[in-house]
Design a protein that fits this description.
This protein is an alpha/beta fold. It contains 8 helices and 8 strands. 39% of the residues lie in helices and 16% in strands.
Length: 269
Amino acid sequence: MTVLEARNLPRHVAIIMDGNGRWAELQGRPRTAGHRAGSDAVRRIVRLARRLGVEQLTLYAFSEQNWGRPQDEVEALMALLHEFLLSEREEILSNAIHLRAVGSVERLPQPVREVLEPLSQRSAPGARMVLSLALSYGGREEIAAAARTLARKVARGQLSPEDVTEELLAAHIPSVAYGEPDLIIRTGGEFRISNFLLWGSAYAELFFSPTLWPDFAAEDLFQAISAYQRRERRFGLVPSVASNGHGAHANGSSALVETQACPTSPSDS
């Protein structure tokens, strides 16, 4: 049983959901079965994160590079996404979860956008948790898009090059609109971030889990958060300075929560 500090949870958790395909192959099943099992894991972890009090959850669901996969697999992933949005719509709304998408959403099939966009708008007011789906997303692409936006403003004379600061660029990066991730988890045993949240990951804590995404459960998430809570986040500062308002231990709470009391109610490969 993993024990967590009740007041020292990461505010923003991001997950690279890796391992659907390998999970299916190990069972002698088609990759689509792995993606469907991965969709069930999304439901499980979203519910758990909400009950734990995580304020933001960002899930790497479909990368820009995933468009290069076989057409039948892409179509199956889009169908699963459409199904997920329809099936989870009432739960999202009834639990004050703001669902939003980051990435080149205009590339998604129209049936997906017809469900996604109204749900994003309707779920925004009064939200207590933000669920961001990275769809047709790439970290390099996101930064390049922000740079193009600012370049156009400079070309029109609305900005001078000296006005382009780190803060201004960050304001044009949608994935950090609600804050940078505190903890990035990658499942499936790989040790890379695969073009995910490149701007926001600058000072995020990283946790690599061997568990394939369809099997990722409560204890796996608790282990990742527990590892985060044992680290000291310095943000480039010395420990005495970093502890004054920064880092995993900034809240200083010694209150503990037994994770067994928090029941639970697509990928890079």
